[in-house]
Amino acid sequence: MTPGWDGSNDWDGWGSTPAASTPSGGSYPPAGAHRGRGGDMNPDRGRRVPRSMTPGSDRGRTDGGYPSGGSLPPDDSYMPDDSYRSGSSYPPSPGHRRKRRQERVPRRRNWAPHMPRRLWSRVLAAAIVVILIPTGWSVGHALTMPGGGAFSARMAEWARDHYLGALVTLGEKLTYQPPKVGGKPSFALTGPSVASAKAARKDSHGKPGAAVASCPANLRTFAGKPLPGEGVWRVLGTVNGQPAICGTDLRFSKVFTSYVAGIASMNQSLVKFELRPGTLDPGPGNWKAPDYIPAGTRRGLMATFNSGFRLNVSGGGFYLNGERAGTLTRGVASEVYYRDGHIAIGVWGQTVHMTPDVVGVRQNLHLIVINGRVPNSVDNNVTTAWGATLGGGYNVWRSGIGITKDGRVIWVYGPALNVRQLASLLRRAGAVTAMQLDINPAWMSYEYYLHSQRANPKPVNLLPNQQEPADRYYFPNSRDFTAVYAK
Asked: The pTM is what?
């Protein structure tokens, strides 16, 4: 018997023992020697270490690592390569031996929710859940509530309402692009006109008859040499064949010559003005007026335009049909809507007051044209006194409204405007009293309506580059606005 072996059949599945009994030239082990239970060819199953040796005790030997030059592997630390399958002798030479890979026991994955073991981890996880659930609901409500507005505008508004205004301002500063110097407008200033203006008419005897409404005198550009159509009034809407709304485009700077402001002049003897609430500002209430222009109420619609700032930063309040939001504040610039459809602009408690004929009041900041002059206050604290602008810049989208000496309502809006330029445009169009309304592109627009006597007039943007779509007020809107109808 070979030393170190007890003569028993220590190698499962092997019917013979030592290499000495192996026929010369024959392969070893014989066929089926490595078959374990079930006949599989897994060489790792059923292998044993000889009783007289400890695992790994043959490491570093030069005789092949087998006792007495035998041919059987002494322990489980080595495994043969595949050379015996091709009929060569077994085991291979020491240089061909390779270390056996330890068999890993597969672990069953536990899919049950993992609860942190430490107390502070549990407290932190609970706090995160408590914060995320109401925050997610609030953000989702802000993004899905009716009222229109782009995703970025809604998120910015939500953030400002939840004490994240500084973060919004930082983001705006990082993305703000100052106005481009020089250049030409990206669109022609010769927009469409629905009719030609008439200055006067004569009776059958050739004598001057009753005066007919007409557009004002053409405006002079601030940019030097005028472009074709610049400052030339065109008729945007008529009532009984008379021009009720006239519009034009005008550049306002010799430096930023590619930017154009849109201007509308509305004849209060032919149109009437209605204040409408918004779904967010002033919000739900018994306003007795819809927050959009629903079907069935569009016949005679002539124009729509935006209102002022959010009420919480406007410096004043909102009043409509006996209901209030905020406080009507003395000394604040105010649009006042009367029962007969006309409006007035002035300082609340000084030039305009509450009377039985008042049906609506919208307040916003302070006047920017007073008695036909632009006050120096328009240059003071521009980014604080006149609204938080995108990127903290002075030149942004702005809008404003004014009243001429003869009672016409002037509307101005456009990109890259500072407060003085907005006031100067209103003054050049004839306004003797004027106030700034909303700013930044997501909140302002002016639309006029073609075929206003039809059930569904077609809305058209006064400026083709305004961000909001022309039909924005055919759907619920988050901000209050003004609707202009034919009398």
From this structure: 0.68
